[in-house]
Automatic annotation (TrEMBL):
It comes from the Bacteria. It holds the Pfam family Aminotran_1_2. One of its GO terms (molecular function) is transaminase activity. Its EC number is 2.6.1.-. Keywords: Aminotransferase, Transferase. SUPFAM superfamilies: PLP-dependent transferases. Residues 32-380 form the Aminotransferase class I/classII large domain. Its cofactor is pyridoxal 5'-phosphate. PROSITE patterns: AA_TRANSFER_CLASS_1. Belongs to the class-I pyridoxal-phosphate-dependent aminotransferase family. This is Aminotransferase. It comes from Reichenbachiella faecimaris.
Length: 385
């Protein structure tokens, strides 16, 4: 047996990868589990987007390796999108880099900036990939608290002074997953100042700004953010293109170039039809988001019914494709969801997979159709009866 590298010795298999195996096994026993866990949009992309993909893939000249920086049309479409929706001006040649998904981007950014022993600040609760990417780099991971009483914002004033002096990078994510907290201009301004003052690279991971959110915002829109801030964005959620693997990183030229140095040595560019279809998606009119959100708003109502049945409390003004909710006092998240899974065959995500501050919370995904929500409501109402 050959031993695995030290960098993955502590890294566990992704929670969902294991849980989905378990659910598959339950289904093979005839359990018919209703999965309200995973945040993979079930709705299709716009028709003109898939039409473009098919047309482009049928051409003879679209199958070669592509430029590491992607086609200029895609970079321009991203820059225009940032200008139109976030009021951010980006140079499409130097400040925009398309990526094969933003999860992959988390790894590329970590590889570009973290040396072993460097300190990286990650949110608790937060998207698990920030921590695992940092751990794989041998970085020193320090989590900062997001608490309901502070609107799930970091308490920047009270971060430990020694940690701040050592920190090189910080991950933030607004609108926030899993808590659904939206960004505010004030918190983005504070973060941009914080990045300058402490010389820390602050990266906002922003895949959810178009879901159930009237005011999409970018960290790059505030003053000073062009110095030490980057933003990751994604086509996965806003355009129902999760499986296509299209993301982007935007910001200062020197930082983007550092990420390109990693990327160009790891991947070999994005399939051209995917790039051309992504341009089509980025140019969709606002009515695209309005229609998608109509559906999510209806699902959110059904998710609220489920949470009411389960005796949970929640904020109705959450953004993103999840409902984050507090479970009844005295219950533990994992035993709470396990009971529902084993007794009612409904899977809901425990808050603890996002960090210790997720204890006492659960997360319901809005990525299932209304029939599935109604079926879950029926099953769960039987608990109450
Ligand atoms: C906060 C956050 N960032 C990034 C991602 C990854 O998105 P992508 O599909 O672009 O890799 C997810 C997906 O679940 C997410 O929740």
């Amino acid at each position: 047996m050959i031993e695995v590298a030290n960098r993955i010795a502590e890294v566990k298999e992704y929670y969902f990868s294991k849980k989905l195996d378990e659910i598959r096994e339950m289904n093979s026993r005839g359990c018919d589990v209703l999965n309200l866990g995973i945040g993979s949009p079930d709705l299709p992309p716009a028709k003109q987007v898939t039409d473009k993909l098919v047309h482009s893939a049928s051409q003879a000249n679209t199958h070669a390796y592509q430029s590491y920086r992607s086609i200029p049309e895609l970079r321009s479409a991203i820059a225009n999108f940032y200008s139109r929706h976030y009021d951010v001006t980006l140079d499409s040649v130097t400040e925009v880099l398309p990526l094969l998904g933003s999860k992959e981007g988390v790894m590329y950014i970590s590889m570009a900036f973290l040396n072993p022993g460097d300190t990286v600040l990650i949110p608790n609760p937060g998207y698990p990939a920030y921590k695992t990417a940092a751990e794989m780099m041998g970085a020193n991971v320090v989590s900062f608290d997001l608490k309901e009483e502070n609107n799930w914002f970091p308490d920047l004033e009270n971060l430990d002074k020694n940690t701040l002096a050592a920190a090189k990078m910080m991950w933030v994510n607004y609108p926030n997953m899993p808590t659904g907290q939206r960004a505010t201009k004030e918190i983005f301004e504070q973060l941009a100042l914080f990045a300058q003052k402490h010389n820390i690279l602050v990266v906002n991971d922003n895949p959810y700004s178009f879901i159930l959110n009237d005011h999409p915002m970018s960290l790059l829109s505030v003053q000073g953010a062009n110095e030490n801030c980057l933003e990751l964005n994604s086509m996965s959620k806003a355009f129902n293109m999760a499986g296509w693997r299209v993301g982007m990183v935007c910001g200062r030229e020197e930082y983007v170039n550092a990420i390109l140095r990693v990327k160009s040595n790891v991947d070999s560019g994005m399939f051209k039809p995917v790039q051309e279809a992504s341009v089509e998606a980025l140019n969709l009119p606002d009515s695209w988001f309005e229609n998608v959100n109509l559906e999510y708003a209806q699902r959110r109502k059904l998710a609220e019914r489920i949470l009411d049945i389960l005796g949970c409390s929640y904020d109705v003004k959450q953004s993103g494709m999840f409902m984050w909710a507090k479970i009844p006092v005295g219950r533990k998240s994992e035993e709470f969801i396990e009971e529902i899974l084993q007794e009612r065959f409904v899977f809901i995500t425990p808050g603890t997979i996002f960090g210790s501050n997720g204890e006492g919370y659960i997360r319901i995904s809005l990525c299932s159709n209304k029939e599935m929500f109604n079926a879950a409501i029926e099953r769960l109402e039987m608990i109450k009866a």
